[in-house]
Design brief:
434 Repressor (Amino-terminal Domain); 2 strands
Length: 63
């Protein structure tokens, strides 16, 4: 699954550590999400969606 997480985070000037803190996950998890090595659980996808104020489909797209 492709995602725009890195782009959205960078647009806001957030570090991976800050984003991880907001999502209550590790920085390594944020890195794995951004590089496509890990697909989020549904609850995590909803937290990401709420944090960025975007629909899940605007952040995550099937390849």
């Amino acid at each position: 699954m492709r995602n725009k997480l890195r782009e959205l985070r960078a647009d806001r000037g957030w570090s991976q550590a800050f984003l991880a803190e907001q999502l209550e996950v590790s920085r390594q998890s944020v890195n794995a999400l951004e590089t496509g090595k890990y697909d989020p659980s549904l609850p995590l996808a909803f937290r990401i969606s709420r944090l960025f104020g975007l629909a899940i489909e605007k952040i995550f797209q099937p390849e």
